Amino acid sequence: MVDLKMATLARTTEPRTLPPPSDDKRWRIVSTTMRRHGFAPSALIETLHAAQEAFGFLDDSTLNFVARSLGIPLSKVYGVVTFYSLFRMKPEGEHTCVVCMGTACYIKGASKLISAIEETTGCKPGETTEDKKVSILVARCLGACGIAPAVILDGDVQGNITPAAAQARIEEWMQIGRAHV
Ligand code: FES
Predict the structure, then answer these.
(1) Which of 20, 75, 121, 145 is most enclosed, with most CB atoms within 10 A?
(2) Judgement on whether residues 69 and 103 belong to the same structural domain of the protein
(3) φ, ψ for residue 14 (rounded to 5)?
(4) Which atom of ligand 1 is found nearest the CA of 103?
(5) Same domain as 137, residue 68
(6) Which of 27, 48, 83 is the last residue of a domain?
């Protein structure tokens, strides 16, 4: 049983600003959350939330990065993630579409993208299609405002995307899914 009192998340190393696991701009969201809390161990839950919102799930490299940055033992971080059912260690759907709803993307029509994606999948942000093929997520800013509106389709940032182009890609995923049924 995990002791969830944040006081038990004693630091084993000094917290610090570490280079993120990749140059994916979404790491900025995670780093900013930790920095805002002075890299305190008590920022763990909020940081994990931010990471899951940005990436859709929490993989090993994310947990490692967060543990080292906050100076918390990795085993404690795993303990917290596996204790709370709201955290996921795998993407729910086989494919993931993250739509940026930050200011620049919103101005450039992100809400039209969301409507088009909802129409195609029957899912709202945060949901996964019944056949577990596609998960729809939203992010606040992907750090790609210059090419707004931006989405991330299975890890690839796509800028200046139109609702029709997003729909076409998602329909392709859904068709591929059906072809194997
Ligand atoms: S607001 Fe969408 S990438 Fe920055």
Answers:
(1) 121
(2) no
(3) -70, 135
(4) 1
(5) no
(6) 83
